[in-house]
Design brief:
By secondary structure, this protein is of the alpha+beta class. The protein is 29% helix and 47% strand. This is SnoaL-like domain-containing protein.
């Protein structure tokens, strides 16, 4: 799978459960939309990732990747400590200057 380097870094950070490294993949004013909530800025994104990783203890297995206009779309099989596991989620990224400026996670 030919992923942009920032997404490879993001997946590696998630695999290591390293929320600081994860948040460094984002721009300073990036926005994440997940489970009906908005998380803006690196610090909030780090906190969200830290909490989600701890609570759900999830693993991501990338399935497919595509580019549509300004969107980089990754579908991944996500398994962990949550109802309905495993589930395929869609991660829609916008990338600017090799950093993620926006991420929307949907089922």
């Amino acid at each position: 799978m030919n992923l942009p380097i920032v997404l490879k870094n993001l997946l590696e950070a998630q695999k290591k459960s390293d929320s600081l490294l994860y948040s460094e993949c984002f721009t300073d004013d990036a926005v994440v939309f997940d489970e009906g909530k908005t998380h803006k800025g690196k610090d909030k994104i780090r906190q969200w990732n830290e909490k989600s990783t701890e609570e759900y203890q999830f693993q991501m297995e990338p399935l497919e990747f595509s580019q549509e206009d300004k969107n980089s779309i990754l579908k991944a099989n996500v398994s962990g400590n949550f109802a309905g596991s495993p589930i395929v989620l869609t991660y829609t990224f916008q990338i600017e200057n090799d950093k993620i400026s926006s991420l929307k996670i949907s089922g």
